[in-house]
Write a structure and sequence with these properties.
This protein has 254 residues and is an alpha+beta fold. The protein has helices at residues 19-32, 76-85, 104-107, 122-134, 203-214, 244-249; strands spanning 2-10, 49-52, 60-70, 93-98, 110-118, 139-144, 147-152, 157-162, 166-167, 186-195, 223-230, 232-233, 238-239. The chain is elongated, with a radius of gyration of 20 Å.
């Protein structure tokens, strides 16, 4: 059985698709593309597809990962293009490698996020980030299926900074456009790197921390995009490519 790892995106309005929605769309793409899937054994065989650390509904992402098992050998790049054509624009398969190493999920040590805060100027955001980072611990609350849970949002943050300010001009038509940014309105952009820990700290938890430590409450919901997830370089606070080891392990010429 050949195994292929794929990186896919959720862009624009497709960020509102749930993980279950994507699963259904991907299974249709597999059938439409006549991919020779391998199936599990037993009375109810299922196609061998596994997902890793999917982003929450409402969050855009450039770095979602899944793995599929094939009954026949296929060229990863050809397979990627074939599947991408069968998915709607915004759900895009952007990378594919043949599996050559184990423990892929363990490589997903951290995520890099971009948070766009419409209606917040850079100076206000910079002060809030500085106040958050100055704390040893920032307790936040989140409602879970077992009730309200209190945990530290500060300890998982590996890097947090404010990027150069951006002002909406009304001319941006890309899929990553922030629809809530009015022409001429300030929009603070934050870069956040969070370690994957237990309990998982999400961008909205860090935003709750900004509210608690600096009383920062954007007038509209933040637009959140996961830019990367993978191994964390603690020295630089950057997230590296989790597929790099599979590429490096590939035989020369393949």
């Amino acid at each position: 059985m050949q195994r292929i790892r794929l990186r896919y995106t959720k862009r624009g309005r497709l960020r509102f698709t749930s993980h279950r929605d994507f699963q259904r769309a991907f299974e249709r793409a597999l059938r439409r593309s006549a991919v020779p899937m391998a199936y599990s054994a037993g009375f109810t065989p299922h196609p061998k597809v596994s997902y890793a650390n999917a982003a929450p509904t409402g969050v855009a992402s450039e770095a979602e990962y899944l793995e599929i098992g094939l009954a026949e050998l296929r060229d990863p790049e050809s397979l990627r293009a074939q599947l991408d054509e069968s998915l709607p624009a915004g759900l895009d398969i952007v990378d594919a490698v043949e599996v050559r190493t184990a423990n892929f999920v363990e490589r997903l040590e951290a995520s890099e996020w971009q948070l766009r805060l419409a209606g917040v100027d850079r100076e206000q955001a910079a002060g809030a980030v500085a106040a958050f980072l100055a704390e040893e611990a920032v307790e936040v609350q989140r409602m879970t299926k077992n009730g309200v849970r209190v945990f530290d949002a500060r300890g998982a943050v590996a890097a947090f900074e404010v990027l150069p300010s951006q002002v909406g001009d009304g001319n941006d038509t890309g899929t990553e456009r922030a629809d809530d940014v009015r022409p001429g309105a300030a929009c603070a952009i934050l870069r956040l790197v969070v370690r994957h820990a237990t309990p998982a700290v999400r961008p909205d938890d860090v935003l709750s921390g900004l509210r608690a430590t600096a009383d920062l409450a954007p007038p509209v919901p933040a637009e959140v995009t996961r830019l990367a997830q993978g191994p964390l370089d603690e020295e630089t606070g950057t997230v590296t490519d989790p597929l790099a080891l599979d590429r490096a392990a590939a035989p020369a010429g393949r």
